[in-house]
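User: Hey, my collaborator sent me this sequence without any context and asked if I could get a structure. I don't really work with proteins. Can you help?
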Amino acid sequence: MRETTGATPRLHRPGGEPVRILVVDDEPDVTEVLSRALTAEGWEVRTAADGASALATAAAFRPEAVVLDRMLPHIEGLQVLRSLRKTDPGLCVLFLTARDEVDDRIAGITAGGDDYVTKPYSLEEVLARLRGLLRRAGMSAEPGTHSLAVGNLSMDEEAREVSRGGVTIDLTRTEFELLRFLMRNPRRVLSKEQILDRVWSYDFGGQAHIVELYISYLRKKIDAGQPPMIHTVRGGGYVLKPEVS
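Assistant: No problem. I've predicted the 3D structure and written it out in structure-token form, which is a compact way to encode the shape of the chain:
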């Protein structure tokens, strides 16, 4: 079984150029956090704080995907989407909004949105949704990008399935996102603050003890009856490493 090492394979445009992402939100904290995370994926990112700027930036930047808030100044998100679709029918659009009623979701998808994530959200969830949309849109990557493996621990990101040594492991949504972050950074010590930033919602405001709690949940499922893979680094955080033979 393949062991994940170093950087995760990057999605890119068919010609090898970086994927272009436009983030549209009127909350500066949201655009800043998302920009950092998307840039870390190797993607080229632009931002806009209102509907008019979004349309102008999209016309000049020609993104492959847009992360779009529903509630925007000047031009509302659904109207922005309709205008974008007229010029680029194949554009990937991920709604990211606090409007979480079923009718709001239906309106967003009916208007042409490809996916819908509600605030508060985790960065790992947003990134996973974008990767899925971009792959379906024809962005290129190394084969098996949707699969992660460290030692005998494997994860299918699209099917949301995890197994160790061929035995399926059932995880909750949060446990899955936490393990995904660890598996995308094997042998790298991740601080509690880094984990909170990526796995819990951007405005969660939680304490580090929630990380300790979920690490203990994961250990009970991942390391049960087998050599441990999740290790605590005193004063540093946590690291996922293949079991020692």
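In plain terms: The two ends are 14 Å apart (CA to CA). You can pass these tokens on to your collaborator as they are.
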